[in-house]
Write a structure and sequence with these properties.
Elements lengths: L1 H9 L4 H17 L3 H4 L8 E3 L2 E3 L3 E3 L10 H5 L5 E7 L12 E4 L4 E4 L8 H10 L9 E5 L10 H12 L5 E5 L14 H22 L5 E5 L5 H13 L4 E4 L20 E4 L3 H15 L5 E4 L5 H9 L4 E4 L1 H6 L2 H13 L2
Parallel strand pairs: 3-4, 3-13, 4-7, 7-8, 8-9, 9-10, 10-12, 12-13
Antiparallel strand pairs: 1-2, 5-6, 6-11
Helix pairs in contact: 6-7, 7-8, 8-9, 10-12
Length: 344
């Protein structure tokens, strides 16, 4: 009820303005010890995935906290793990505003943010100031390439970010599936993907030796893939022994929002309309991977039952983003309880 009132006020504002205001309010609530008024307690439901121990399987997807400014405030709401970013080697403003649009009738969002962030060095300052990682919380750092970096040099940006975040991340997510950076999804194709994964895994081994700890690598893929592409990506993941895969990012499709205000805006669609498509990709990916690589299910989770369905489809973990914006912190506990009940 409380979040519904807060959302009503925030939804009267421009989406990006509302986002920053909401995140600051959430941080103030944590400092005042009031996070519990927003978030029900989340029951423990331990999960082992990517060699990591998760207190429960419901996490936050990348994109909400691009610069890792609100890690502790988000942790206070009960997430089992938090993924920050996407971060790039150099700061960049992203695409011109307006670049985020709500479609409330469909419980959806379209965004074309374009990896706006303050750069990897600033993100690391914020990570190191946060308590959550120091207290054993699982923190994923999602990395990408700068918009001005030619696609043929993209691997260098990913390696630069990997070098810098390795010592501070629980796992690193490699984002090659945002629709809002020109040509980025070309990296999902066979030769480009093989080259990128090969170089990332080689650097991971070097960094493991340097730091004395192994940090898992997960690849984040798009929902706009056909069966042949899904199988090819699964084969590449297995061949290069990636540690995880996140399925999926936002979609370029507009199924389920036709005719709604803002439906024709360019960018990635998230929320309820992407649920079926992202879950279909998840199921095909799980089949192709044959249980060799853990999958994180993302896309369209707005009810606890949908989180449980992702787990039943073969995911080990799930992440929230748009559902969290529409439903608020109660969705975290609802999803965790639904998953736990589905296993009994």
């Amino acid at each position: 009820m409380l979040y519904s009132l807060i959302r009503c006020g925030l939804f009267r504002l421009d989406p990006e303005t509302a986002h920053h205001l909401g995140m600051r309010g959430m941080s103030l609530a944590r400092c005042a010890g009031l996070s519990g008024l927003l978030a029900p307690s989340v029951p423990p439901d331990p999960v082992e995935a990517m060699g990591l121990h998760f207190p429960h399987p419901v996490g936050l997807a990348a994109g909400l906290d691009k610069n890792a400014e609100y890690i502790d405030a988000l942790a206070a709401l009960g997430f089992g793990f938090i993924e920050v970013g996407t971060v790039t080697p150099r700061p960049q403003p992203g695409n011109p505003r307006p670049r985020m649009f709500r479609l409330p009738a469909a419980r959806a969002i379209i965004n074309r943010m374009g990896f706006n962030n303050d750069g990897v060095d600033r993100l690391l300052e914020n990570v190191r100031a946060a308590r959550f990682p120091k207290q054993g919380g699982i923190l994923g750092i999602n990395i990408g390439k700068n918009a001005t970096t030619p696609i043929e040099n993209a691997a260098e940006d990913y390696l630069t970010c990997l070098d810098k975040v390795y010592g501070d991340a629980s796992y690193v997510a490699v984002n090659i599936s945002s629709p809002n950076t020109k040509n980025l999804r070309e990296l999902q194709k066979d030769e480009a993907l093989d080259d990128l994964l090969s170089r990332l895994k080689a650097r991971q081994q070097t960094l493991t030796d340097q730091h004395g700890r192994y940090v898992p690598l997960a690849l984040k893929i798009a929902p706009d893939l056909d069966n042949e592409q899904i199988v090819a990506i699964a084969d590449a993941l297995r061949r290069h022994r990636m540690d995880g895969v996140i399925a999926t990012n936002t979609t370029l499709g507009r199924q389920g929002v036709e005719g709604l205000p803002h439906a024709e805006e360019t960018g990635g669609l998230s929320g309820a309309p992407v649920y079926e498509k992202s879950t279909a990709v998840l199921k095909k990916l799980v089949t192709a991977l044959q249980g060799e690589i853990p999958v994180v299910g993302v896309g369209g989770i707005l009810e606890g039952a949908e989180a449980a369905a992702k787990i039943s489809a073969g995911a080990q973990l799930v992440q929230l983003y748009t559902g969290f914006i529409y439903r608020g912190p109660e969705l975290i506990a609802e999803a965790a309880r639904a998953i736990a009940a589905s296993r009994q």
